[in-house]
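Possible regression after last week's pipeline update?

I re-ran a chain I had predicted before the update to compare outputs. Posting the input and the new output here so someone can diff against the archived version. Not blocking, just want to make sure nothing changed silently.
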Amino acid sequence: MTNLTPPATAVEPVCPATEKDLAAALAESVARGVVRTGGHFSKDRLAGPVAEAATIISTRALRRVLIFEPKDLTISVEAGLPWAELTELLARERMMIPLDPPFAAVATVGGVVATNLAGPRRRLYGTARDYVIGMRFATVEGKIAQSGGMVVKNVAGLDMGKLLIGSWGTLGVMTSVNFKLTPLPPAERTFVLTGTLAETIAARDRLLRGVLQPAAVDLVNPAAAEQLGLSGWNLLVRVGGSLAVLDRYRRELSGFTAGSNDLWPQIENFAQTHLERYADGWVRSRSGLLTELAELAAGDHPIIVRAATGVAYHFGRGLAPEPWPAPGSDFAVMQRIKTMLDPQGRLNPGRLYGRI
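New output (post-update):
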């Protein structure tokens, strides 16, 4: 992830109010040239630079709850519904979609799914691919395609919707998304271990060798800790469950102290806060062994490491390091899929890896 932004443009977004209108606007716009699509475009600075667009189409007017079946643990919503509103609706029913995406306060449902960005609880709960059970999306031809449905175990046919998850809007425009839900835990606690880098890594190793299953395990370096109101190296553990389960964590997490649950919203919003504070700010993610990531975290820039999944988020300023991973053997397949769904390359070109 980086600070590369789409070119400045004076084009006003088109905000269709219905799925049909959005599909028609997309087909008409693609016929004229490059089209930039999104919701509130809150995560543009985390993506590649989109070419100058003749048209901008936003899903923000598509914000209805279409179907909500609490007993079946499923919900269907339009793609422009703010993620924060969806989270609040589900919380009232003691349910959740535990993705913890960055920019959650301003992002839309479609934006969260299209970027496939997840937060600290990915360690236990997974990503959007684990919760999306169906979707509808507009193609560049102006057609509406449907993938999946409202049944959790729907395996009939090719799941085209999975292609759009993480595609950053380069293959089509989601108009609605169906999710499976999971219950909120009865209670949550946060535990913090402050120490040297070696001590925090050793504590992480002991935790992962045990039988307990925390929702999140994050390592923060001193530069990031300072912005969280902490000091030094810190290992943060988020747990949920019954009071008996939480009490067992308290007993077995030797050396940890009770921390505030308010730490997690700060961590989830760290990227947004950083980019809003610095016009030249950038965010880069890197995967690897914890020992390798810890070497990166020893620098002066804030670093937050998903210590149980091996992903580090580096927050810097000025000239950003090379942001894109080297193309793998599957890159040619990705290019063929792009050509199949967007033959003219008009839909958000460059946004994905700066290459698609």
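Follow-up from reviewer: compared with the archived run. The first strand starts at residue 35 and ends at 38. Marking as no regression found.
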